[in-house]
Specification:
By secondary structure, the chain is an alpha/beta fold. It has 12 helices and 8 strands. It has an 8-stranded mixed sheet, sandwiched between helices.
């Protein structure tokens, strides 16, 4: 797939977020008057607009500080303001934009995927599998979310479409035993990547924590380095609630990285920036559509320019 196509999808997917930020900033873009510095009142208003656009108070304060320190020698206008906002968003995102690299030896690299039900977790697993296939890695899936029969069935459907093996059991079965079988089979087959789906219920944190701890113990017996990654899938339409999920899952599951989905369905995509600034966890990929190749690692500069409206 060409980068132009992905850029177009990104531009379209983040359009609502861009429009929301533009709307919130609109009042502050009037009467900039070609001055070389922003007033305290203007800075306050811009900071409020950034927070209202879901970029979060930390990122908003950081962008405000940059704007306050900046001198706009050729005069401050709308383009200059958007450019400065984009530059600082890029700096925030660049620090965390890290694709999932397959480096484990011996194979497989075991990736636990977690997230609340409805976040797009199972579909994201399929999209990640496709991404790895495009890089010529062999992939196996493990249906460790035995709490929902629909999750097992959905994973099987995706595995069939992608032509890959999925290890599964019965609804209500023991996830750890499924993961045990999956690691054994992936190791014997020399599979590069094993992606493990896990339960997404959060109403009983202790139960989920115990289940994940059991999976970790089983993995450790077979491969002391596993899991190599614990990836949290976040639904961007949840806005600031997505940040609360990071807090909880980081405590419960030891999250090592994030994937953010459904950026195309919301005006709250600024939460991507808030998550990056507040938690500093690697963001491995973002999703801007329903198609199998609509989940990709991202270019921080392009995403920043799109969000800030600093694009042609």
């Amino acid at each position: 797939m060409s980068s132009d196509t992905w850029s177009d999808r990104l531009l379209g997917g983040l359009r609502k977020t861009q429009e929301r930020l533009a709307e919130n900033l609109a009042g502050n873009l009037i009467g900039l008057g070609g001055s070389t510095r922003l007033t305290e009142a203007q800075l306050d208003d811009i900071e409020d607009a950034l927070i209202a656009s879901d970029l979060g108070p930390r990122a908003a304060a950081r962008i405000r500080a940059r704007l306050a320190a900046g001198r706009f020698e050729s005069g401050l206008d709308e383009a200059a303001l958007r450019g400065s906002v984009a530059t600082e968003i890029e700096a925030i995102l660049r620090a965390v934009a890290r694709p999932l690299d397959i480096v484990a030896f011996p194979r497989p690299q075991v990736i636990l995927v977690i997230g609340v039900n409805g976040s797009g977790k199972t579909t994201t697993i399929a999209k990640l599998a496709h991404l790895f296939q495009e890089q010529d890695y062999s992939v196996m899936l493990a249906a460790g979310d035995t709490f929902r029969a629909a999750a097992i069935g959905q994973l099987r459907v995706w595995a069939d479409r992608l032509g890959i093996t999925v290890i599964s059991g019965e609804e209500g079965g023991d996830p750890a035993s499924i993961v045990f079988d999956a690691v054994k089979q992936a190791t014997e087959a020399g599979t590069d990547v094993l992606i493990v789906d896990t339960a997404g219920r959060l109403h009983n944190k202790r139960e989920l924590m115990d289940e994940l701890a059991k999976i970790r113990r089983v993995l450790g017996r077979l491969n002391p380095a596993a899991p190599h990654d614990v990836v949290l899938v976040l639904d961007a339409t949840n806005g600031q609630n997505a940040l609360q999920q990071i807090e909880i899952f980081r405590e419960v599951a030891g999250v090592t990285g994030l994937v953010m989905t459904k950026l195309d369905g919301t005006a709250r995509g600024g939460v991507l920036v808030a998550a990056a600034e507040q938690y500093g966890l690697p963001i491995h990929a973002i999703g801007v559509g329903e198609k199998i190749d609509d989940l990709r690692p991202f270019d921080p500069a392009l995403v920043a320019r799109v969000i800030a409206g600093d694009v042609a």
